[in-house]
Design goal:
Strand content: 35-45%
Structural class: alpha+beta
Distance between the termini: 62 Å
Radius of gyration: 21 Å
Helix content: 10-25%
Low-confidence stretches: 2-11, 14-28
Length: about 130
């Protein structure tokens, strides 16, 4: 009888451990596979300042990784710095980018395909257009 109880406890503990492991993995399932990879910022438009800026591939990049982290790289020769990164998450059509300073920005994904990504701020006044790097 004692070995039967031990067997039941072993099954219960194993089931809980497997369940927890699957729960941890499912958090990354909400990241669209099309988003993963390295993206070049091609254009930025701001209706606040009536400003339209074009970038060359490699000037300003974002890399979204499957572990839920991103890296932002800025070409130092542009005088803009080297970049940053942090955690990111996707919920519906909202992309939230975090930083090491615990600052979070949320963008609306207006287009996401294998090669194109368009983001806007929450009030639609700022637009980012990106192309995936091959």
């Amino acid at each position: 009888m004692k070995s039967f109880i031990n067997l039941i406890l072993l099954v219960i503990i194993s089931t809980n451990l497997i369940g927890c492991s699957q729960d941890d993995d499912s958090s990354n399932n909400s990241i669209p596979s099309e988003l993963l990879g390295k993206w070049n910022l091609i254009e930025r438009y701001s209706s606040y300042f009536e400003e339209f800026v074009s970038y060359q591939p490699g000037d300003y990049t974002y890399e979204f990784k499957s572990d839920g982290r991103y890296e932002e790289r800025i070409n130092f020769q542009l005088g803009l710095g080297t970049g940053t990164g942090g955690p990111f998450s996707v919920s519906g059509n909202q992309l939230t980018l975090g930083s090491v300073e615990s600052y979070f920005e949320t963008y609306i994904i207006t287009e996401l395909t294998v090669n194109n990504l368009k983001l806007s701020d929450e009030d639609g006044q700022l637009m980012y257009i990106m192309e995936k790097e091959n």
